[in-house]
Amino acid sequence: MKKKLVIELLxxxxxxxxxxxxxxxxxxxxxxxxxxxxxxxxEKLAKIIVDDFVKQNTIASNPKLDSAMEIxxxxxxxxxxxxxxxxxxxxxxxxxxxxxxxxxxGNIFIFSGLIKFTESPxxxxxxxxxxxxxxxxxxxxxxxxxxxxxxILLSVLTGQDxxxxxxxxxxxxxxxxxxxxxxxxDVFAMDLLVKSNIDPKIIAHFFRKLNSKTKNxxxxxxxxxxxxxxxxRIKAALEYKxxxxxxxxxxxxxxxxxxxxxxxxxxx
Amino acid sequence: xxxxxxxxxxxxxxxTLQEKEDAMGAYLxxxxxxxxxxxxxxxxxxxxxxxxxxxxxxxKFVHFHCHQALFSQLPTTLxxxxxxxxxxxxxxxxxxxxxxxxxxxxxxVIINIAYIAWGIIAAVQARxxxxxxxxxxxxFAFASVFAATNNENINKETPTNLPPR
Lengths: 268, 165
Description:
Order of helices and strands of chain A: HHEHEEEHHHHHHHHH
Largest sheet of chain B: none
Number of helices of chain A: 12
Oligomer: heterodimer
Shape of chain B: elongated
Order of helices and strands of chain B: HHHHHH
Helix content of chain B: 55-70%
Strand content of chain A: 5-15%
Number of strands of chain B: 0
Distance between the termini of chain A: 89 Å
C-alpha cells in the first residue's frame, strides 16, 4: 500500500510538472519590444527636444560654475570609461527646485536649487552618476516608447509637432521611472562613484538630507509607490560593499564659491 | 493489496440515503468560495475542514469521502494560493511578468478544471453509494479509514465496493 501511495504521489507531481513544463516550452509570454530607437535617431530627437527645452528655460552659466561642472564631468567620464553617449550637463536657473533629470542623447539637466542644496561636489557627482545610470540603461527611451509609442516618437523627427514636443518635454522632466529602474540606477551610480574615486556612501548622506525636507512618509506603504523611498536608498547605499583598496579623492573645487556664483548669475 | 487487512467495506445497498448525500456533500465544499462570493482559495479549504470534522463520525463511508475530499483540496488550495501570491508580487512589487508565471497560471487553470470535473464525478459516485478512488488521495483515504487494527477479514463474493487496485 505504501509503495503504491508513493508511486501515485510521484505520478501526480510529474503530471503537474509536465503540464507546467509544456506551457513553459511553448513560451506564450508576449514578446518584449526591443529598443527600436537607434542611437542615431535618439541623438537627432535629443537635439530637437533639448533645443526646444533650452529656449523655454534659463540656463545658468559662469566661469566658476562651468569649471566645476567640467571637473566633475571629467572625473565621472573617466570612471565610465566606455559609453555610447557624449554627456552634456546644463544648469537650469531655478532655485526653488531640488531636482535633476536625464533626457535623450546623454543630456542631463540640473536645477540650480539642487546645486545650492548639495554640500559638496561629491554629492552632485552622486546625483549625476544616478542620471547617467538612467541614460546608460536607456530608461528614458524605454519610458517614452512605453508612454507615447515609437511611431509617434519618430514622427517628431520629421514633423516636429510643437505640441507633441512640449508633451515629450513634460514627460522627460517628470522623471517617473519604475522602482526597479530607480534601484538599478542607484547601483550603477555607486559602481561609477567607486570607479571615479568618490565615496558611494555620499548617496546615503544626500538622501538623509532630502528626508529632512520631506518628512511625511510611512515605510509600510512603500510598495504602493512608483519609486523606492529614500530610506531604502539610504539602506542600499550603506550596505554597498566598497572594495578594500578604495581611496576617495576629493574634488579640487571650492563648492561654496560655486554656489554663490549662481546668484547673481550670468545667464545666456 | 489483498495482503493488507481492512475493515468490511460498506456496499451501496447497505447505505442509507442520508449517508450517500452526506458523502456527496463533502465534494461540494470546493464550491464554497463561489457561494461566499470571494475568490480566495482558503475558503474552500476551511469549508472542507469544517465539513470533515462535522461528518467523519457518521459512518465509515461518509468518513472516507470526507477524508478524500479534504486531502485532495489541500494541494489545489496551496497551488492556487501560490498563484495569488506570485500575481500580487508582479502587480505591486515589480516582479517580472514572464513566461514562467504564464505557464504556471495556465497549469493551475487546467488543474482546477480537472479537479472540479474529478470532484463532480466523485460526488456522483458517492451519491450512488460507491467508494470512488482518486489517484493517491483515494488510496490514502482508504488506508486511513478502513485499515483494520485486528484480524478481521472480509469474505464476500464479488461485492460492488472493493479496495483500490
